[in-house]
Each structure stands twice: as C-alpha cells, then as structure tokens.
Write a structure and sequence with these properties.
Blueprint: H1 3-27, H2 34-65, H3 73-103, H4 110-139, H5 161-168
C-alpha cells in the first residue's frame, strides 16, 4: 500500500467514524451508559487518528499523482486548502476526545464535554466529507461543476466533436 491508497483509506475512516462517535456519545447520555460514552470517545479518537493520518499522507499522495496526465494542479491545490481547515477540526476533536476519556465522568465537566465532542465529531465529519469531495474532483471529472461542452471529452462512438456540431445545424 502506498501513500495514495493510505490517504484514501484513512480519509473515509474519518468521515464515517466521527458520526459513529457522536451517536455513541448521544446514546451514552443516560447516566447508566458509561461504556457507551467511553466507546464514543474512543471512536472519536479513531476518527481523529484517521484525520491525522490523512494529513500526514497527503503530501506524499500529492507528489505521486501530480505528474500523472489526468491530474490538474488547480484541483489538487483546492483540495489541499480545504484540507487545512479540516485538520483544525481534527485537532479540536483529538483534544476533546482525549479530555473526554479522562474527564468524561467528572460531575461538573462530563456533560458539557460530551456535548462539545458530539459537536466536534459532527463538524469534523462534515469538514472531512467536504474535503473528500474536493479530493474526488482531482480524479473524477464527472463530479466537477466546470465540466461542460467546452471541457468535455469527445464521444468516441460519434466520431469527431466538430462533425457532431456540423450535423446539428441541419
């Protein structure tokens, strides 16, 4: 497995594990559900670990794909810029989840901390999905909004694109 594969794998982990953490923490709102709260904080840490791994594998993944013929620098740069903001959410989730593991049962801090981590998990997941969408645009032209007739590839089943335009006028 190279850095590009790792980057894609751990990014999906971040997106899907953070909501699981939020659900477990919400489920753990019952005072008798200490194990659910603990599991929620652990899932939040796993999601954050995925975010950290995506952050650290991103540069190498970029170097591997930027020389490929289909890679466009503008999409790579957009993804990288949005990923920097997502990483701020990942750092906050990391801190919140760690605090939750140690202070989550504190009489005064437990409940506000739990709600904070639920919020951070949701925001981290949304930010991760938003970032992944920009990452997807690097390879998947079908999800780009700027791909129109002028940027589309010619349809190989209908010959040259100019021939098709000539026939449409008649």
């Amino acid at each position: 497995m190279d850095a590009t594969h790792l980057h894609l794998l751990v990014t999906h982990g971040l997106i899907f594990l953070a909501p699981v953490a939020a659900v477990l923490l919400l489920w753990g709102s019952n005072p008798l559900q200490k194990q659910m709260r603990r599991a929620g904080y652990i899932f939040a840490l796993l999601a954050a670990a995925g975010g950290w791994a995506a952050h650290f594998s991103g540069e190498e993944a970029e170097e591997r794909i930027e020389s490929l013929p289909w890679a466009e620098e503008s999409y790579i740069h957009e993804h990288e810029e949005v990923a920097e903001v997502t990483h701020l959410w990942v750092m906050a989730l990391s801190a919140g989840a760690l605090a939750g593991l140690f202070l989550g049962e504190h009489e005064r801090w437990g409940k506000p901390l739990r709600w904070t981590v639920v919020f951070l998990a949701a925001m981290t997941s949304f930010a991760g999905a938003y970032t992944a969408n920009f990452g997807g645009k690097i390879r998947h032209t079908e999800i780009r909004t700027d791909v129109g007739p002028a940027n589309a590839l010619p349809d190989p089943t209908h010959g040259d694109a100019h021939e098709k335009d000539d026939h449409s006028e008649h």
